[in-house]
Amino acid sequence: PHQLMMRATPIPRTLAMSYFADMDISIINEMPPGRKSVITKVLSSEKRNQILDTINQNCFDGNQVYWVCPLIEESETLQLETAEKTYHDLSNYFSNHKVGLIHGRLSSNDKKIIMEDFKKNKIKIIVATTVIEVGVDVPNATLMVIENAERMGLTQLHQLRGRIGRGDKKSICILLYQKKLS
Q1: Closest Cα to residue 38, out of 176, 163, 177?
Q2: What is the DSSP string of 122-179?
Q3: Do residues 174 and 146 make contact, with C-beta atoms less than 8 angstroms apart?
Q4: How far apart (Å, rounded) are the C-alpha atoms in residues 119 and 163?
Q5: SS3 breakdown of the chain: % helix, strand, coil, rounded to 5?
């Protein structure tokens, strides 16, 4: 072949198929050996306390958790959950588990250190923005909570959800939405 294109998400792949219609297409539609499919649940943000119990049990079972927020800090125009507030709330709530915070305003070195600690299981719960969307592989992470999921596109949710379920354990992705869901 003179050209090889690879895509992981369905939407860009579909666009590439339309644009390069004369190309031969190969599709890998099976999971790597040992991996289980990720269960996705959609819950109202009013169920947050129940999710905290699930996270606590998940951590005591030796697993790790991602909690994804759309914003780093409060906005005057958007009433969304922020990574900084969620980090402080979870740090206060989970005294038995180390909570970390990662977002795009941190230096590359700080992000690298935090992700290394998460990979080494020193951090049990990591609060993040979508900076973790690509290139993160922590097989021990089995639970992801995505705040304000109604504000994200399908491709972004697909990429985020792909951060869990990388090991041989059952994984769950919880999409939290605010009350005014259309």
Answers
A1: 163
A2: S-SEEEE-GGGSSS---TTEEEEEETTGGGS-HHHHHHHHTTS--SSS-EEEEEEE-S
A3: yes
A4: 12
A5: 35, 20, 45
Calculated CA dihedral for residues 86, 88, 89, 94, nearest 10 degrees: 110
Per-residue pLDDT tens over the stretch 5-16: 776 666 566 666
The predicted structure's pLDDT at residue 12: 64
The four Cα atoms 89, 93, 94, 98 give a dihedral, to 10 degrees, of 30
The DSSP code for 25 is -
* Region of residue 25 (phi > 0: left; psi between -120 and 50: alpha; otherwise: beta): beta
10-13-18 Cα angle (round to 5): 125
Asked whether 5 and 20 are in contact (CB, 8 A), the reply is yes
Q: What is the pTM of this model?
A: 0.85
DSSP secondary-structure letter at 8?
S
Distance CA 28, CA 6 (A): 11
Tens of pLDDT, residue by residue over 157-179, are 988 998 999 988 999 999 999 87
